[in-house]
Structures are given as C-alpha cells and as structure tokens.
Amino acid sequence: MPDSASSTYAAPDLEKASQPVEKRPRQGSGSRTYANFRSAISTLRIQRRYTFQAIASTFSAATIVMALYILQYHTNTLLHHHVNVRVRLLLMAGIGAVSFATGGLIMGKVLLKVGRKRTREFGIGLVIGARHCDIRNQLLFEALFLNVAGGVLGNACGLCIGFAVIALLQLPFIVDPMLLLLLVGVSIVPGLLCSFYAIRKILRMDFENALC
Fold this sequence. Notes:
Blueprint: H1 4-18, H2 29-46, H3 48-74, H4 78-82, H5 85-117, H6 119-127, H7 132-168, H8 177-203
Helix pairs in contact: 2-7, 3-5, 3-7, 3-8, 5-8, 7-8
C-alpha cells in the first residue's frame, strides 16, 4: 500500500497530463516575410565574397552605360557630327544591351553557384520547420537587394565619372531626371530575370539528401 506522501506527489503530474497541450500560435505571413528578409540580410553580411561578386556584376554594367550616356548626351565629338542620330542610338543600345546582359548572366551564375553550396543549409531549414516558399522568398530578397544595390551604386558612379569628364571639358552639365530613373530601372531588370532563373533551378534541388 503506497504511503500518503507518494500519492500526494503523483497527483499534480496526473492533472498536468490530463490537460490539453497548448498549440503554438501559427506564424503569420507578415512575420514570415520579415524573418525571410532578416535571413537574407544576415546571409549577405556573412558571405561577403558572394555579396561583392554579385553587386560588382550589376555595378560595372550600370557604370559603363551611365558614363557613356552622359558623355554622348553632352559632348559635341566627331561621333556626334558625322554619325546619324539613329546610328548613335543603336550603338548606345547595343553597348547597353551587351553590358546589362553580361552583368545579369554573371549575377545569375554567382547566385546559382552559391545556392548549390547552400543545399545543406536549406535542408536543415526544412527539417526545423521552414518551407520551400521561405527558401524562395529568402533568395528573392537576396537577389533584389544585390541588384538594386549594384544598379544604384553603378549609376551613381557612372554619373560621377560623366560629370568629371564634362567638367574637364568645361561644358554645362545637363541631365534628364526621367532618363536617369529609366537607366536605373533598366540596369536592375536583367539581373533580376537571371536571378529568377537561378532561383528556380536552386529550388529544384534535393535538399533533404544533402543532409545524408
């Protein structure tokens, strides 16, 4: 026959076991988006080499195109006098297309290369409760930040180079704000398109087997 002390001690455990288990509140879409954004920023801060390579691809393309646009818009050079306006526009469009396409392809290649090295990280995330859409959103935030940062910094650098050359030539510096905004937007689009393709390929990888 058990003594009264042991029976008195076991009673609270029985009552606690009979109580329903409290469910953890489900994380809302807003908090998940914020968590994915923070994860993307943390990854970019940790993997600085990856961040630098990706930003440099968009930065270099945007710098070249912006500087050429400023010089072509302001200077009365031999190219301006003896070449048709349509030919000059086609030349600028060709240089811009090649520069942006090259920058976008480099951006996508860097993102895909780093994504393949992070399969174990993504697999651990899925094990502890993350979803494929969380991985996708994190990669999208990384691509968006890298392309915007590279495009804005590159256009600013190209604008400074163009301004310095125009100042040396002692010409008035005139810019069209709408064209500047258009160039900034155009410099971001190719990198984003290539990044979307790279992200789709990354999401098709088998993250679970990477943990074995």
